[in-house]
Amino acid sequence: MKEKVLVVPAELLKDYHEGLVEIPEKNAFEMLKMGFFVDREKAETNESWRQTIPYVAFLDSGRILLVKRTAKQSEKRLHNLYSIGIGGHINDSDGENPVEAFKNGIFREIEEEIDADILNLKFVGLINDLSKEVSRVHIGFFYIAEAKVNGIREKENFEWKMIDLCDLEKFEEGMENWSKISASWLKSNLLRS
After folding, report:
1. Over 70: is that where the pLDDT of 76 sits?
2. What angle do CA 75, 64, 167 make, to 5 degrees?
3. Any idea what the CATH number is for the domain that residue 83 is in?
4. How many Å apart are CA 70 and CA 81, to the nearest integer?
């Protein structure tokens, strides 16, 4: 059976600037109400749809989770790049209603990839990146989780470590673009004096 993923029409994002778009979570969920499920294979090449991806940065006592995607990870376009976001596709098995599926899918993705006790989960905004082929068919829903991070579950797909927020820039050159966008926001908003 083919994997079906949640998409929204790209047209819904036409008025948003590129980068991190800070909007209320309720506005993002309004957009999700227009979502529907399609075969992932078709969604990966159709720029009239944007696959919805929860993208969660994990903060633990002033440190942030940094992962490096291995060559065993499924998205070849992101192999060997650093990421500060954990998440993935929302599937039809997460629920029939797009908003409920998204809410369920966030926690399924986190549970699949990371061992963490989440204390707080806060929506920041949308990652709207049109700079690369992979990002033109995805839209990121950026969250920050305050958590106790115990480790990574998908050890074959990710190498990981906790780093100080102020050390993010040391890894930016090797980061996937969504992480560069997110790291820029974190530095501006969490590292202010």
Report:
1. no
2. 100
3. 3.90.79.10
4. 8
